[in-house]
Amino acid sequence: MTDAERRAALEEVAAEIRACRRCRLHETRTQAVPGEGHPDTEVLFVGEGPGLNEDRQGRPFVGPAGALLDELLASIGWRREEVFITNVVKCRPPGNRDPEPDEIAACAPFLRRQVEILDPALVVTLGRHSMARFMPGAKIGAAHGTVRPAPPESGADGALVFAMYHPAAALHQGSLRPTLEADVLRIPAALIEARRRRLGLDPAGGPSRTAEATAAPGPAEPVAGATGPVDLDEGPASPAVVAAADGGRPPTDGLEALAGDGSTAPAAPAATTPGPAPAASGDSAAEAATTEADRDQLTLFSPA
Q: Where are the beta strands (DSSP E) in 96-228?
């Protein structure tokens, strides 16, 4: 799907959301909030529902929680324009109450279509209602800061899911802010892991247990033990160099490559122009794919 086709498909869903009357929330909304962001991003953020400011402007995360989300993204060198942001429900629940199960169910087809159009490598859930969609049965107190394969029914088959508290939680309970700040630093490593799994590579850069999935086109099959968390490292989150803001390309002095034990490997050569790895077969194919993954590891858009 081209950039223009993806934009058109997302706008078609957005138009349906703006006209939606599937549940009671349309009766009290000012504007529906479909979501916004870059159509070619590999990272999708999913919150719970619009608040007062979002309802007025028709845009997600534009109030105090949105300002904190912008700060969190800036801490890893990203901007909201480089990701896509939406919510589980697209209209504001009165008084900012929790969305009801039937309201979530009414919006579920819209969210699934957005996920399928974007085809993200990584879905970041913000809050327990979003997490329940992509990590069924998980408890946010235990799951925050962890990553798991997305369930196929979410529409994100082949992607990884990273759980976080909602930024609003840190505004109401200040003690959660350090947790949010620590968790967001793990997102770049989660993106690297998601890309490598799609290539059929393990975190250390070698062929993974699902390498056979790369023999045919299409998304990689879910990894073994898909119901449990995926370890990003064995200790604290590894620091990672983030792509420069000018066009999302890596810095010219190279990138640190994430090693399998959570440490950083020697810097990979700087990328020149985006594009697929040279054609290869056998072990050389895996090596070429690993090099390409390392070169472009923290840009937010798949190599063309």
A: 122-126, 147-149, 160-164
